[in-house]
Design goal:
Elements (H helix, E strand, L loop, with lengths): L1 E6 L5 H12 L5 E3 L2 E6 L1 H10 L5 E10 L3 H10 L12 E8 L7 H18 L12 E8 L2 E7 L21 H11 L7 E3 L6 H10 L20 H8 L11 E5 L2 H12 L8 E4 L12 E5 L13 H12 L3 E7 L2 H6 L6 E7 L2 E9 L2
Parallel strand pairs: 5-6, 8-9, 8-11, 9-10, 11-12
Antiparallel strand pairs: 1-3, 1-4, 2-3, 4-7, 6-7, 12-14, 13-14
Helix pairs in contact: 3-4, 5-6
Amino acid sequence: MYDIVVTTHPGLEEILSEEIREITGRITCGSHYAYIEIQGELSDIVKMNINSRIATRVLVRFAQFTFGDLDDLYAEAKKLKWSSFLNPRRTFELELNGRHGFKGLNMPLLRVKDAIADHFREKTGSRPSVDKERPDVRISLYIEGNSMKVFIDSSYHPLYHRGYRTRGHFSPMKENLAAGLIRLSGWDGRELFYDGFCGTGTIPIEAFLIKNGIQPQVLRKDFGLAPLTDNAETLIRKEKRRIDIKYKKGIIGNDISPKALHGAGESLGLFSRYGGIDFRMGDFLKKTAPADKGLLLINPPYGERTDMEKEFPKYLGDKLKHDFKGWAVHIFSANNDFIKNIGLRAKRKIPVKNGAIDSRLCYYPIF
């Protein structure tokens, strides 16, 4: 059994626990700020990496120890059995998170790096090299006071790197955040899904993957499972399913930018040459609702792509009240003034962080 930490965006911990239980059948050991803990087998680690839409990383605990000063940290780290997954021919990278009281933000990281180098140099006469671009092994360090946890990063890259972003597909919203917002909205895949400000399509593409049961990492090739098994590629290949497009209707993405929509179409094309999302171009405020009912999930571009910034919240609120009766409306925003000035009373507000930005997903049933 492995001790595993699965990270996500703050605010998505509860639905991540639900999702991990659905994927592995295992109940989480604990839920914390931006991560959950679970015990599982290697097969569970593979399943979570391939199938979790909400996770950011799947970290496997290698060691935990306490220390006094930096010299003590070095000595304790040097004792660890690094050769269980590292050797002088493998490259590695260290990442440090947490809080400590030492001068210099990266001093603990540098001492662990020295400990790894000296550990191998004394035992073998050579040492593994650091590679910050494409290391063989990514190691995550978490420090809290005088306690350090050491993890093998089995995801390698963050799991929001789905592999469908093209050069024209820049988005300030990570894919796993978009998937988390869709799950928080309660969308069941049966009702019409509409994003009126879709930009390069992250939210509707994630909805498309969910509706069709397409694994979020089906396009990805790089994972960090090699330190855990010699059969990593085989396990990944067995877990992945062939892309099967069952539903080509029921999702609409709208944006005013033709360039953004071009990028969205290119990204969708990596999954389906025959569509699956109805991308439309135009000003959301000048369009009528596409149906009598459905679910609208939007991340409005307040202060970014609108010329009428001060009036935009009111215009949007009026639009929703008049044209979207019968719809479940969900608005994701980091701007409290925007939410206040929209002129609607939210039935529910869920705090979720978008990176380091405090945001909220607000639910407005329109009658």
